[in-house]
C-alpha cells in the first residue's frame, strides 16, 4: 500500500509538471486581457493610443504621491475611463491650474474639478463624486446639530470647515486642530460631539484611522467633482463624458470609492444645517411682517453669505471665526 501511495504522488506531480509545460508552450502563462479598439484618435486626443489625464497631486485622496508615483481616486477613475476608450493612460500633474493645462494642450482631460467653481474656461462633465462640508459623528444616530444647540465640533484650523462651524454655530463651538487626524481623535475621545470636514477628505481620514465615522448632516449645500475638457473638443466631451456616466451608473466608481474611503459617498437627502439656520432667522420674530420684502432680502443675504465660495472639495477657507464671505480662501484640509 505504501508503494502505491508513493506512485500516486509521483504521477500527480508529473501531471502537474506536464500541464505547466503545455502552458509555457502556449505563452507566458500570464493572463492578458483583450485590448479594446481605440474609440478616439488624434486630433481628438493629443497622442495616438494614449489618454493624457491631468490631476492635482496636492489634493489627496483624489490624487497624491505614493511610492514614487501618482495615486488616488481620480487616478483609478481615469484608468477606468482610458480602458473603456481603448487607450493607455498617462497621468500628468497639472497642479492647481487645470485650465492652463487644457489650453496649452498638455492634457486631454482633467479630473477633480469642483463643479461649483466657475474658474477656468473649459467644458465640465456631470459630477462623478459628491462632496461638501459634512458633519461627522461616531454614530449615524447621533442626531443633527441645531444652530442653537451648543453642539461642539473639531475642525482643521483655518479651513473652510472651521469657518463654517464658526459662522453657523459660533466660535465657542469650535475646537480647532492642526489636522483632521487630530480632529477625529478628539471625536473618538469624546471631547467633541462632531467633526466638520470635507466629505471625501473626512471619510478618507477616518478610514485611514480605522474609525467608523458617519456623515449625519451637511454644513453647506453639497457639490461635487467633475471632469474637464476643452470647450472646442466636442468629440472628446461626448466620448469621455459618456464613459464617465457609465462608470457612475454601473457601480465602478462606487467600488473605487470603497477602496479609498471604506464606503461610497452618499449625500442626497442629508439635512443642510446652514439652510435650517437661515430659516430660523427668517421666522424667529414671528408675525406677518416676516414675509415682507425687506425680511426676504435679509434672509437672502444670509443664504449668500453661508454658501459663498464654500461648496468646494478643496475645503479652503479664510481665517478661523471670520464670517465674511470674502475671507474663505485659507489652507486646504489635510487628511494627515
Automatic annotation (TrEMBL):
Residues 1-23 form the signal peptide. The keyword Chaperone does not apply. Residues 281-336 are annotated as: Disordered. Residues 50-264 form the Solute-binding protein family 3/N-terminal domain. Residues 286-336 have a biased composition (Acidic residues). Keywords: Signal. InterPro entries: SBP_3_CS, Solute-binding_3/MltF_N. It holds the Pfam family SBP_bac_3. PROSITE patterns: PROKAR_LIPOPROTEIN, SBP_BACTERIAL_3. The keyword Glycoprotein does not apply. It is found in: Cell envelope. PANTHER family: ARGININE-BINDING EXTRACELLULAR PROTEIN ARTP, MEMBRANE-BOUND LYTIC MUREIN TRANSGLYCOSYLASE F. Belongs to the bacterial solute-binding protein 3 family. This is Transporter substrate-binding domain-containing protein. It comes from Adlercreutzia shanghongiae.
Amino acid at each position: 500500500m505504501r508503494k502505491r501511495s508513493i506512485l500516486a504522488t509521483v504521477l500527480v506531480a508529473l501531471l502537474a509538471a506536464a500541464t505547466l509545460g503545455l502552458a509555457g508552450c502556449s505563452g507566458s502563462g500570464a493572463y492578458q486581457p483583450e485590448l479594446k479598439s481605440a474609440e478616439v484618435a488624434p486630433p481628438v486626443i493629443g497622442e495616438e493610443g494614449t489618454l493624457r489625464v491631468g490631476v492635482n497631486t496636492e489634493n489627496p485622496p483624489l490624487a497624491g504621491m505614493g511610492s514614487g508615483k501618482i495615486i488616488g481616486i481620480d487616478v483609478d477613475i481615469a484608468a477606468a475611463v482610458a480602458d473603456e476608450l481603448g487607450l493607455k493612460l498617462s497621468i500628468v500633474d497639472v497642479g492647481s491650474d487645470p485650465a492652463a493645462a487644457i489650453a496649452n494642450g498638455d492634457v486631454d482631460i482633467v479630473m477633480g474639478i469642483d463643479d461649483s467653481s466657475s474658474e477656468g474656461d473649459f467644458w465640465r462633465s456631470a459630477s462623478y463624486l459628491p462632496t461638501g462640508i459634512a458633519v461627522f459623528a461616531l454614530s449615524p444616530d447621533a442626531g443633527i446639530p441645531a444652530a442653537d444647540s451648543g453642539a461642539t465640533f473639531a475642525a482643521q484650523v483655518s479651513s473652510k470647515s472651521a469657518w463654517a462651524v464658526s459662522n453657523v454655530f459660533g466660535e465657542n463651538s469650535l475646537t480647532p486642530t492642526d489636522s483632521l487626524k487630530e480632529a477625529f481623535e478628539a471625536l473618538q475621545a469624546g471631547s467633541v460631539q462632531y467633526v466638520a470636514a470635507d466629505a471625501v477628505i473626512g471619510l478618507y481620514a477616518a478610514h485611514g484611522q480605522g474609525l467608523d465615522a458617519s456623515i449625519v448632516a451637511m454644513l453647506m449645500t453639497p457639490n461635487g467633482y467633475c471632469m474637464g475638457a476643452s470647450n472646442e473638443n466636442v468629440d472628446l466631451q461626448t466620448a469621455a463624458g459618456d464613459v464617465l456616466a457609465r462608470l457612475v451608473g454601473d457601480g465602478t466608481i462606487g467600488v473605487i470609492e470603497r477602496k479609498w474611503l471604506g464606503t461610497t459617498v452618499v449625500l442626497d437627502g442629508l439635512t443642510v444645517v446652514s439652510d435650517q439656520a437661515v430659516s430660523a432667522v427668517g421666522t424667529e420674530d414671528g408675525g406677518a411682517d416676516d414675509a415682507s420684502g425687506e425680511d426676504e432680502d435679509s434672509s437672502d443675504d444670509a443664504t449668500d453669505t453661508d454658501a459663498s465660495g464654500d461648496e468646494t472639495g478643496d475645503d479652503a477657507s479664510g481665517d478661523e471665526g471670520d464670517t465674511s464671505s470674502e475671507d474663505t480662501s485659507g489652507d486646504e484640509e489635510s487628511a494627515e
